[in-house]
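Lab notebook, page 48
Experiment: co-folding of the full assembly
Goal: obtain a model of how the components sit together before planning crosslinking
Operator: M.T.
Materials (sequences as entered):
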Amino acid sequence: MEIEEKLSVLNYKTDKGFEHITVTPDICEVCPDYFCTFACPAKCYTVMEGKLNFKYEDCVECGTCLFACSHGSVKWNNVKGGHGVKYKYG
Amino acid sequence: MSEFDAIIVGAGPAGSSAAIKLASSGLTTLLVEKADPPGSKNVSGGIMWGNELGGVLPDWEKDAPLERYVISKGTGLLTSDSLISVDFRSRKFESRKTGYSVLRAKFDQYLANKAKSKGATLVTGVTVDGLALKDGKVAGVIQEGDEITADTVILAEGVNPRVAISSGLRPEIGDKDVAIGVKQVVKLSEATINERFNIRGNSGFAGEYVLGFLKNGVKAGGFLYTNKETISVGAVINVGTLRADNETHSFEIMDQFVNHPFISPYLEGGKMEEYSAHLVCEGGIGSVPKIYGDGYLIAGDAAGFSYSNGLIIQGINYAITSGIAAADTVIEAKSKSNFSSGMLRGYEDRLQGKYVLKDLKKFRGIEEVTWSNLAHKALPDIAEETLFNLFYEEGIPKRHLMEIVLSATKKSGVKKTDMILEAYRTMRRM
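Observation: model returned without errors.
Model output:
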């Protein structure tokens, strides 16, 4: 089962007005490792044509990317109340 | 005059236990949770060990949403081809239940509602943005620019405590403080689960495994827990070795575990109903910050309270015990109208007297044992080679067991000096 299919089972209340995680493109552009793409369990970080892509919509708010990035690119906030991932089992 | 005696940030096991205790003692308590409903952002492997809840809810075993009690505790080493395991089953666990599998969305909601029924004000779907300060002391919380005041704030935000960190009350988390947890909940019928795990009624299985088959030095553990009609299966991944490898995806480790030839039969035909990820507190005493100060206390995962030695992972019990100790401290502080650091120090004293800080101190350095080369590489390979040679009959003169072990040890490729050092560490620290 691919990770995309696994994530499609989840319920999210996406906050269209607030991205709780932001990255700094200038820093990512020269990243030597892209460890975020290996560490993030929800595959929110991918590299396409040598460029980092980040999508916050699939984020399960685990916090991994916050310390996975050792270059200071990731800014991490809690989602605004009631938004984000909503687990049925947990 | 503050609006509340206490504000608790986070309605997980630590926060809700504190709220139940505070509200039961007549203190005005505000319990704030960013998820709606409470628990819907929380994940744990799924076993709650111990009887800590009895401290605030004497009847919890009768009315809490518990899945199964652990009658069978498994520990295993997995290599690509083999599973070497111990499955300890005992009827003693029937009369003296020690662990229950729980699903946090339901379980945490139950606890939060208990706090509400005892008189706490429960606010869900509200994210606390920061702490309100007055004369350098914590005096409440800030939410959407509004200040809500309290004599004491208990930060029970969980493993990624943004408020505590952004307020400078504890450092940012790093590779050594946490592991990456990934989990799947797989639906199967109750009868199928009973049959596959050889269990009956509401008894259950809890197993932890060393994933010795991982490549490039990556280290991770796997877990397999039975719920009533689902199985919780997942992996806990060491960050440092994943980083050093920089080729393996965290979510692939999950797949490697569930597709292992001796794990997949348990899950066969099941429907994957939920995928989740959460950090796991792993840093031991080295990750515990100062847990009290003027007007605040830190409890549960936010304080780094958890215990793991590779054979067992515990956290919920530490959360509950610390939550109750925090509440007891606030109750005493209230009776003396003194919410200073000197008064709230009583929290640490309480935890020193309990297993929470005693264990963390006694098992200082246990995380090095949990993630040692000995446990993750040498032991699985040596055990496999030894047992295979012991049980494989090829019609040639037999060797003494010691000879087999020694040749298997040599074959494992782990340096003898490293192995002796790590074996010594394991004996001392485990």
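Interpretation: The beta strands of chain A are 11-13, 21-22, 45-48, 51-54, 75-76, 84-86.
Next step: discuss with group before ordering constructs.
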